[in-house]
Amino acid sequence: MSEIQTLIVDDSSVMRKIVERALRQAGLDSMRVYEAGNGVEGLEILRTTSINLILSDINMPSMDGLEFLRQIKDQDLARGVPVVMITTESSEEHVKQAIAAGARGYIRKPFTPEQVKERVLPLLKAA
Q: How many Å apart are CA 123 and CA 68, to the nearest integer?
């Protein structure tokens, strides 16, 4: 597998590093990571960079993850790129909203590298 261009969107820099480490532990060694602190920053990266995988929090300032998903779709910035939501939100309604907005997967915090592997790697193989 060639280098995976990955965008991690979370308002916590610590959580972005945790997500990156979990991805590497899940087997994504050949990965270039781009980081954004909210959806607005994430959209800026998508406008200038070809991305293969997006992992995004839902609860963020400026632009939350659900609006970020809607904007990706509205602006046609990452067609066919799998988006996985990573969040503390556990309600069924948030899961439905994320899937309706275009997310291909959903991981609840706290998570393990094994959960990341199970939910993310199949999406990359399908892409």
A: 19
